[in-house]
Amino acid sequence: MRFRSIILAAALLAGLGPAAAQDYPTRPITMVVPFSAGGPTDTVARLVAQSMSRTLGQQVLVENVGGAGGTIGAARVAKASPDGYTILLHHIGQATSATLYRRLPYNALTDFAPVGLVTDVPMAIVARKDFPARDLAELVAYVKANPDKVTLANAGVGAASHLCGMLFMQALGTPLTTVPYKGTGPAMNDLVGSQVDMLCDQTTNTTGQIKGGAVKAYAVTTATRVPSLPDLPTTREAGLPGVQVAVWHGIYAPKGTPDAVTGKLSDALKVALKDDLVKQRFGELGTEPVAEDRATPKALGDFLAAEIERWRPLITAAGVYAD
């Protein structure tokens, strides 16, 4: 009798019964964004959450839990009840954290139940508006000739801008003075104010500054040109094919979340990615929704594993780690 009571209590606590999964959701869902409000990932999350709320019939509320390169928010979701009411929207940092952090409080690959990919955000190489180089070829030449004079900003160790900067320096074979900030906002502010020379950041953060003439743009880090910046060449076109990176975003639930629940979340995500408003706003930010077959648990799980292996050698070779 005691054994049966323990089993029943565990099932009730976990909320994993078929009926619970079938009725899901019956209350609001918290979507944790492991970065500050107003940043590129927060913008993506709020657009998707608004549409998913309509499909699921319950509010998907975005909560910003920043700090430690996104690991604090991710850890919170990893430890949450696997009932589908606490989920995570994270970017490429979910893959790089597996190598970057020596004492990561979770396993990025096994402590989450993937829901689906959301979007691939291109990055743009930009500089202060009065930087002397006119195009990427001149930029490369100037950087190689003046490595001690050029400062390269990033949004912090492990941030997408940091990874892009490492790829850029690796492609040139030229180390630069890097200036880490606590987020993309401060880094961009100092670039606009000519306090630093260069930055490689997401188009969600750079497009407005480029179009407004606040910074000088040289290339996007994707294989094809970005529709919102059609005159900006790709790194491949401009002679740096090795600098290819996009900031992808994915949604996760805690490990152990029932397949029926992650399936409902994935279905709602697919609807959101077809939403005209979401597509319009994504386009204005220089990105677009992923194809429907990538907004699935399997697609995200496979992609995350591949990305962890892709970035491991670069991070290890650079000797860049965070505590």
Written account of the structure:
This protein has 323 residues and is of the alpha/beta class. It contains twelve helices and ten strands. The chain folds into two domains: 2-121 and 247-318, Bordetella uptake gene, domain 1 (D-Maltodextrin-Binding Protein, domain 2, 3-Layer(aba) Sandwich), CATH 3.40.190.150; 122-220, D-Maltodextrin-Binding Protein, domain 2. It has helices spanning 2-14, 18-23, 40-56, 71-78, 93-100, 136-145, 160-172, 184-192, 203-211, 259-274, 276-284, 297-318, and strands at residues 29-33, 60-64, 86-90, 112-128, 151-154, 177-180, 198-202, 215-220, 246-254, 288-289. Strands 1, 2, 3, 4, 5, 6, 7, 8, 9 and 10 form a ten-stranded mixed sheet that branches. Helix 3 crosses helix 10, helix 3 packs antiparallel against helix 11 and helix 5 (93-100) packs across helix 12 (297-318). Residues 5-16 have low confidence and may be disordered.
